[in-house]
Amino acid sequence: MKILVLHRVPYFKIEYHRGISHDRHEVTYLGTERALATLPPGLRCERVVRPGRRPAFEEARGWLAEQPREFDRVISMSEYELLDAARLREHLGVPGASPDEVVLARDKTLMKRAVHEAALRAPRFLPLPRLLESGGTAPWRGRTVLKPNRGASSEGVLVFDTPGQVVAAVTGGRTGVAELDAGGDPADWEVEEFVSGPIRHFDGLVQGGEVLLLSASEYVGTCLDYARGLPMGSFQIGLSEPMRAWVARALAAVRIEDGSFHLEAIVHEGELVFLEVGNRVGGADVVATVELATGVHLPSYELRVLLGEPVAGALPEPPAARRRYGWFVHPGHHLVGREFRGLDGAARFRADPHVVTWNELLPGTPLPDHITYQAGETILTGTVTGRTSDEVRDWITDLFGSLSVRTRPSAPTT
Predict the structure, then answer these.
(1) How is domain 124-193 classified at the architecture level of CATH?
(2) Which terminus of the chain is less hemmed in, N or C, by CB atoms within 10 Å?
(3) CA 247 to CA 263: how far, in whole Å?
(4) Strand order in the sheet with 46-49
């Protein structure tokens, strides 16, 4: 089989060789020089560099116009290039999810509308242009979330006290989001009612519409607070049959039928409220903690699903010793322009037997200029284990309450 991979996520996050036999298949990786540099030197494949100045679809189409060739599969494991891969599949006549199917699992307005139509609860929402036209009148009162339709990592997400405050901020160019304040298209944004409660994420694998693997976790902190500079993590919890049924209905509503998924929901007054979903693996150390608990490396089996290989019945058995796992991450992007000098309060946690992995920046490393959960880029990432969900949650909470970060201004560069 001839496989084209739109390569963006660092190789070690996916480990393509675990899901694709590079000896049996002809695999071509198309990516920027930086992305291709993460491929193992001895990997049997073709490497094609693209400039990275235009969308992956456009650059791939231009490359193929100059060097025509055929592929049996076109794959992307990056949320930011799922639509590019779908457009390229459509352009080449290659099987796989269509652009319309990918957009449904990327556009927050479309996915919430589909969930509502499936009789599942989701926050009430409006496209931003409709709120602006109404002068601030919405089907709800009180706290209101403004977010980009196809954003990720809570970038550009803001919370206002009322819908009217959203209108005032947007029309006055005072949201603090450069793109929107500079006159960006309001059609790229939506507003929704703020629903309070713990936030859970469900991660797993689906093939042919059947959920083959499911893991449930609850966040410590939130993605929005992380974007603002606070640490976050999550810990695994038990699964009930109502949870399983709810996840299956939500995935069916947004037509996610093949591959990995990362589904988020708010627990409000004992009820799951749909927040958003992605047809991809979760970020941070979701992949690692799912594999530790279940024995399943999600990207590997997602790749097999995308190649059309049957996965049901082929998943490994979970470890005999059932434990709960969690992950933690401390941001550094809010300290851009400074370099990391060390963590105070971390000594007793580094050597704690609960710790599975601990990845801390080296002193002197400049802090990132963008939101990232990536080890080696942000201040601290890691995974932890315990006998119960409460034990893991309390450990992460204790860690966050004990840490303080030392920094200093970055040395000037020439």
Answers:
(1) 2-Layer Sandwich (3.30)
(2) C
(3) 8
(4) 46-49, 26-31, 2-6, 73-76
What is the residue type of 275? L
d(CA 402, CA 399): 5
CB 101 within 8 A of CB 82: no
Buried b (16+ CB within 10 A) or exposed e, 234-269: bbbbeeeeebeebbeebbbbbbbbbbbbbbbbbeee
Burial class for 51, CB neighbours closer than 10 Å (0-12, 13-18, 19+): exposed
Confidence (pLDDT) at 153: 66
Low-confidence ranges of the chain (pLDDT < 70): 153, 413-414
Task: Outline which parts of the chain fall under CATH 3.30.1490.
Answer: 124-193
Q: Where in the chain is the domain with CATH 3.30.470.20?
A: 199-409
According to the model, what pLDDT value does residue 151 have?
A: 74
Instruction: With H, G, I as helix, E, B as strand and everything else as coil, classify residue 385.
Output: strand
H or E segment to which residue 382 belongs? strand 380-386
For CATH 3.40.50.20, list the domain ranges present in the chain.
Answer: 2-96
What CATH architecture is 199-409? 2-Layer Sandwich (3.30)
Measured at the CA of 135, the angle between CA 131 and CA 139, to 5 degrees, comes to 50
For residue 38 the two structure tokens come to 């993460």
Residue 299 has φ and ψ, to the nearest 5°, of -60, -35
DSSP per-residue string spanning 133-196: HHTS--SS-S-EEEEETT--TTTT-EEESSHHHHHHHHHTT-SS-HHHHTT--GGGEEEEE---
- CA torsion 221→223→225→228, rounded to 10°? 150
Q: 262 pairs with which residues across the strands?
A: 203, 278
**What does the buried/exposed string (b/e) look like for 144-162 if buried means 16 or more CB atoms within 10 Å of the residue's CB?**
bbbbbbbebbbebbbebee
